[in-house]
Give the backbone structure.
Amino acid sequence: MTGNQTEREALAQFEALLGAYGAEPRRWPADRRAAAEALLARSPVALAMKAEAARLDSLIDGAGVEPAPAHLVGRVLAAAPGAAAPKRSWLGGLLRPAAGLAFAALLGLGLGGVISPFAVVTSDMADSDSVMLAIGDVPEVEP
Amino acid sequence: MSERSGESDAALMRRVAGGDGAAARLVVTRHLPQVLALARRMLNDAAEAEDVAQEAMLRLWQMAARWREDAPIGAWLYRVAHNLAIDRIRRRRPMVDVDAAVSLADPAPTPAERLAERERKAAVERAIAALPERQRTAITLVHTLEMGNIEAAAAMEISVEALESLLSRGRRALRAALIELKDEAAGE
């Protein structure tokens, strides 16, 4: 095989490499990168081919990835492990059961005060619906 | 390996599994735009692409506690997103309204000095959107998401040779479609 033939084959292989991966050496398969760079170092034809491929790269690489919309980021983060269970401080952990008991006691007293007048004034309001109305705004209490 | 902190993907996923919100945000910042870009390119539909990107990320969260030490997050995510998008492509009707898909991704009217650049990008997106699905995916994995040939071939479940063939045909078609823009780029 002559030197010219070898060079032509090397250029053909380089053209195929550029055709698939473009002009950026970082995208070239590792097992072909050294030969391609050696060819570039000695061949102006290879350099011209690379420059031509780079022009297409400049168009393709400039398009594509944009920031994800905020609503999508929010949905994804809301589903991440631990996102639904906010961390509690140790003090909150100690106080929470006591606060729950105190609130339950107050609720019992309050309900007694709220429901009994209705029961006295109108008998038809003292059904289950009115009880639900009376306690409907009670915040959720954690154990 | 994580680019900025030196933290491995496995370590990052352990933090995610432990409920570390900062770790989850880091994963989202690093990978969600790329997953979305892949899905958008494959599906040519912004809303469907968001669904696929979200589903892929949710599957990642589910895997967090069982993450393999040597598994790269990006490659895993792109593979899952690719498969989810393929499922949707198989389910829907064969014709896709490319112009509508591009217009969804196209932002509102802009100042005159940015118009030419936007038009150029839109033309490139239209040309990419017009490629056959597998060529489009190969181009996106390698040129947009910067995946190596072995990773990209694995994501598409094809050989490296098949990937190169898709890339070559895709680039050839894009060169033909974008010849005028390419000449402009040469003049810059």
Remarks:
- Residues 110-143 of chain A have pLDDT under 50 and may be disordered.
- The first helix of chain A runs from residue 3 to 21.
- The interface with chain B takes residues 16, 19-22, 26-27, 29, 55-69, 72-73, 75-77, 79-83, 85 of chain A (CB under 8 Å).
